[in-house]
Fold:
Amino acid sequence: MRRRIDNFKNSYLWYSFKKDKIAIICLIILISLVAMAVFAPLIAPYNPYDSANIDVMNSEIPPVWIEGGDPGFILGTDNQGRDLLSTMIYGMRISLLIGIGAVLLQSVMGISIGLISGYFGGRIDSFFMRMADVQLSFSYLMIAIFFTAVLQAAVGVGRFGEIAVPFLILVIGFAQWPQYARTVRASVLAEKNKEYVEAARVAGFGAGRIMWGHIFPNTLSPILVLSTLQVAEAVMSEAALSFLGLGMPISKPSLGSLINSGFEYIFSGSWWITIFPGIILIVLLLSINLLGDFLRDVLNPKLYKG
Amino acid sequence: MGLYPPNGGEIYYKGERIDNLSPKEMLPYRSKMQMVFQDPYASLNPRKTIKQTLEEPLRYHNQSLSNAEVVERIEEVMLQVGSDPKWISRMPHEFSGGQRQRISIARALVVAPEFIVADEPISALDVSIQAQILNLLMDAQEQRNLTYLFVAHDLSVVEHISTNVAVMYLGTVCELAETSLLFGEPKHPYTRALLSAIPRLDGQKVDRVRLTGEVPTPIHLPTGCVFHGRCPYVNKRCIEEIPELMQHIDGRKIACHAVEEDRI
Structure:
């Protein structure tokens, strides 16, 4: 373990990270946002899911620094009288949960399919890759809207709120697996003709052992880069779906549904309900994306071999 | 080795046919036959330490070994190939080409094989390292009683290491003989041309056999003898009929109509 830490400290990744100010700032922002989301119950001033804290009389209070603001609600309240700051922190928690969950699902599916079709090739490969082409030829948003609408109609809007998180993970996860499958397949094709794979076959190892034990570790760098970008993508998809009213219900809002709920009040002067969650969403996505770009530059095998 | 299915013919190992076995039936042969590859930079998994690379095949083929025995056997082969056993926790990129090739040989030796296919194991190495690796291979042969199938294009290396030599041209065996016989008195016209092309240090003029024409593409093999287009002794039969590998009086096997008919 110590050796691993030492190795990491001597690595090119750590070296270039220390020199890249943007990456450092992004990582700090990202870590603090994730920490806020994880420790939401400790950090947020109120629990937005507890209806005892909600008073409709408090609705649409502006932020403190504007006239009429209440020091109890730093960023003001939303249309239901919830403290906006607490709701945003809890909303970010849901957004990140869906984003990471969806990416886990995507990566498990995509990596397995990519490894299998890259390693075996032939008909299996054609089958999976045509399936991926078909999947990518649809707009995933369209499919997501379709399924969410059907499910909402089937179980009713009230019950939908309870199953919304796993359902959104499933929809967004299934929609994006071809990205992983293609990336992994491309690296597998490059790796599988190298002599160390032949050596493993000469040793008599089975296909599964060669795929997961020998080839998969060598495809990790593109997967790592893709995963960071896909988390941002999934958070954005969730926000888009919620904004369209098909994601998280307003009783348990994510950042997207918070933006949506505030959108109706933006012309009546309560701009803060939309703007603050919007800013948080942008900062979150931007820091993830910039980190992903940094990783892509550093792990690019054309620039650095390791 | 079963890396690629054969296009034709049969493969025998100690009298048993092995080219039609299922992967499971092939498994007992796997630890008896190993392979050393050409490119030492591609033949070691870049994400595995040397220990992992050596340990995995050993455990796979000998599941009853205890941890202490595994470590012991790895240290033994590391010493045999002239590497320091302390290096086993390093990654392949920390080694030079010659050291990697040593580790690659260690990986082949660790499962205690009887037969090693060495696919141009020294052609990617520096000349000074080539000699070291060659000596290493010959020492290992002596100590472990190994058989090599040594693929090479460096003829002095071939003369140095082999007991029997098969000369191939366009995927066909031309001549198969004991080393001294083949190098001393080549019979097949291609072998003659090949051996006369070895550069010499003593400065004497040698009668080089100059071949005319180009190497035909292996996709469209010529009719008859594959060498007929460039052979100085060609006749009509060579163009029409594929020569078979036949036993010659002095024990060598040779595939040439001209030798068979005593024209040369």
Observations:
- The interface with chain A takes residues 1-3, 23, 26-27, 30-31, 33-35, 37-39, 42-48, 56-57, 60-61, 89, 93, 104, 107, 111 of chain B (CB under 8 Å).
- The longest helix of chain B spans residues 127-144.
